UniProtKB/TrEMBL annotation:
Gene3D superfamilies: NADP-dependent oxidoreductase domain. Keywords: Oxidoreductase. Pfam families: Aldo_ket_red (PF00248). This is NADP-dependent oxidoreductase domain-containing protein. It comes from Castanea mollissima (Chinese chestnut). The keyword Oxidoreductase applies.
Length: 320
């Protein structure tokens, strides 16, 4: 798969490229240029594409895959690793199978490589939106939702299944009843939110981590400019002759997890891949380990006095 190294994603020998390309634009709604950006990403060597029902990016991604096949940039769809996600409004036992079937229809694919439960949250069926309507928040029955996810894998619609934004405690709950353990937990990780406890927990349980917002996702609902304005990272970038973005992506890569980058700027798309021929020094790693920690996207949208999560502590089980 291009020049991007891969790491195992499950115990069956399946692998995931260590750098993936994110497709979420905010506000959601596929722009005219998304299809072209995705095609350009394939030209540059990206092979993992991260999509979701929420992002409205599945259709243009499917079109870009068609384009890439037609142009001979890839010989078969199997050269790509495609992730999509189950939105909260479909996080109900009866909605999961129809949701992945709609995702596959949007992508014009027979299977996806990885299907994730987007949040440990359910809302009333019907709407794909963030922020969600707080009056629509419902308790998630993770046991039955996961049973339906397992069915998707057994049917071959998803090669692997996993979760996103799950705390250690929520993973424990899921693992207690799961027949197929989650292959991946996709979570926010960057030098300002390093998630050491969660990474350790997942490693012990054989769950792979994919990091989103490695640069802090500035300009989105779930992002801040804290990472890009961090003095420690600025100093390391200057000293190494790299960009802050490259320092962040390299740092995440050195933690042994896969990472999603997202820029539709052609220069930055290329720059984000330039992390494999150099290393951060032990001194730099030590400096980064000392950065005060703060989570960029706490998920306040899912907190409500009337809802299942009345505080951030309940959503994250005291892990933020």
């Amino acid at each position: 798969m291009g020049n991007i190294p891969e790491i195992p994603v499950d115990s069956n020998g399946k692998t995931i490229p260590v750098i993936g390309f994110g497709t979420a634009e905010y506000p959601f709604g596929a722009s005219e240029t998304l299809r072209d950006s995705l095609l350009h990403a394939i030209k540059l060597g990206y092979r993992h594409f991260d999509s979701a029902a929420l992002y409205q990016s599945e259709q243009p991604l499917g079109e870009a895959i068609d384009d890439a096949l037609g142009l001979g940039l890839i010989k078969s769809r199997d050269e790509l690793f495609i992730t999509s996600k189950l939105w909260c409004s479909d996080a109900h036992y009866d909605c999961v199978l129809p949701a992945i079937q709609q995702t596959l229809k949007n992508l014009k694919l027979e299977y996806i490589d990885l299907y994730l439960v987007h949040w440990p949250v359910s809302v009333k069926p019907g709407e794909y939106e963030l922020p969600v309507k707080k009056k629509d928040l419902l308790p998630i029955d993770i046991k039955s939702v996961w049973e339906a996810m397992e069915e998707c894998q057994k049917l071959g619609l998803a090669k692997s299944i996993g979760v996103s934004n799950f705390s250690c405690k929520k993973l424990e709950t899921l693992l207690a009843t799961a027949q197929i353990p989650p292959a991946v937990n996709q979570v926010e990780i960057n030098p300002l939110w390093q998630q050491k406890k969660l990474r350790e927990f997942c490693e012990n349980k054989g769950i792979r981590i994919t990091a989103y917002s490695p640069l802090g996702a500035k300009g989105t609902l779930w992002g801040t400019n804290w990472v890009m304005e961090c003095e420690v990272l600025k100093q390391i970038a200057e000293a190494t002759g790299k960009t802050i973005a490259q320092v962040c992506v390299r740092w995440v890569y050195e933690q042994g997890v896969s990472v999603l980058v997202k820029s539709f700027n052609k220069d930055r798309m290329k720059e984000n891949l330039g992390i494999f021929d150099w290393k951060l020094s032990p001194e730099d790693l030590e400096k980064i380990s000392q950065i005060p920690q703060r989570k960029g996207f706490p998920g306040l949208e899912f907190i409500s006095e009337e809802g299942p999560y009345k505080s951030l502590s309940e959503l994250w089980d005291g892990e933020i």
